[in-house]
Amino acid sequence: MLEGKIAVVTGASRGIGKAVALKLASMGATVVVNYNGSKEKAEEVKQEIEAGGGTASICQCNVSDHEACKSMIQDVMDAYGRIDILVNNAGITRDGLLMKMSEEDFDRVIDINLKGAFNTTRFVVRQMLRQKSGRIINMASVVGVTGNAGQVNYAASKAGIIGLTKATAREVASRGITVNAIAPGFIETDMTDVLSDKVKEASVSQIPLGRFGKPEQVAAAAAFLASEDAGYITGQVLHVDGGMVM
Ligand code: NAP
């Protein structure tokens, strides 16, 4: 279904990004597995894709670094000659109440979660415009829609991602490029593993389906948005959250 397509997935060494990389590769796409620090884990994702008969490469790049993103995308172009799918998934949390949040923690989350998506998209769109086709999928969060105490930096970054998604979608729609966001709720990854049992229990009580989601369930939504079947969908936010936001 995605044979011959080249996909770049940021933050694909772990969690949701890893699941997205595996899913797109299982559908036939060649996947560039981006990571920041986890080289071994990225290598494992590449090996898992290859063991399944797919094709992948790994690429270190801190997405908050504009010039590094330019180099990464140039490297992908040099290697494969095109980019069909970009999944802006890399993200971090640095939680704390507003009154106690340092400027550094605010800036770091915005730089990686929001500016990171701008950095990659800016260089990828240039190529997709030439191709007159492309799929961009940005990882937002329910928190970007609802807000969440203790996450002003993260919520702002994810609300920003939704705005970035819609504005980009409008700019590039006439050239056959779709841009959508996915807003996961609580998904079982390293990011949510650090939450205390008390916070996890309180979180589950807010989820109509009564459980955390799996990375594979977010990956399925990304695969749909990357597929031919989603060709008439752009500027949307697809919630994968067990019903948290209705
Ligand atoms: P995770 O398990 O903590 O994995 C984060 C991934 O992002 C890792 O692959 C990490 O790479 C990468 N990354 C972090 N900083 C980076 C940087 N500066 N440059 C490039 N890559 C970087 O997180 P996750 O739970 O899978 O979350 C993935 C995305 O979904 C994030 O955008 C997150 O905000 C969003 N999300 C998650 C949930 C959830 O409940 N888990 C809910 C809503 C939204 P390294 O391993 O190399 O550091």
Spell out which ligands are present.
Answer: NADP nicotinamide-adenine-dinucleotide phosphate
Number of helices: 9
* Widest sheet, order of strands: 3-2-1-4-5-6-7
List the uncertain runs: none
Beta-strand share of residues = 15-25%
What sort of overall outline do the alpha carbons produce when their principal axes are compared? globular
CA radius of gyration: 17 Å
Average pLDDT taken over every residue:
98
Write down the oligomeric state: single chain
Helix content: 40-55%
Order of helices and strands: EHEHEHEHEHHEHHHE
Distance between the termini: 31 Å
Describe the overall structure.
The radius of gyration is 17 Å and the shape is globular. The mean pLDDT is 98. Helices cover 48% and strands 15% of the residues. The chain has nine helices and seven strands, in the order E-H-E-H-E-H-E-H-E-H-H-E-H-H-H-E. The chain is of the alpha/beta class. The chain has a seven-stranded parallel β-sheet with strand order 3-2-1-4-5-6-7, sandwiched between helices. It binds NADP nicotinamide-adenine-dinucleotide phosphate.
Chain-wise SSE layout:
Elements: E1 6-9, H1 15-26, E2 30-35, H2 39-51, E3 55-60, H3 66-80, E4 85-88, H4 103-131, E5 134-139, H5 143-146, H6 152-172, E6 177-184, H7 190-193, H8 197-204, H9 215-226, E7 237-240
Helix pairs in contact: 1-2, 1-9, 3-4, 4-6
The site of NADP nicotinamide-adenine-dinucleotide phosphate has 32 residues, from helix 1, strand 2, helix 4 and helix 7.
What's the short version?
The chain has nine helices and seven strands, in the order βαβαβαβαβααβαααβ. By secondary structure, the protein is an alpha/beta fold. It has a seven-stranded parallel sheet with strand order 3-2-1-4-5-6-7, with helices on both faces.
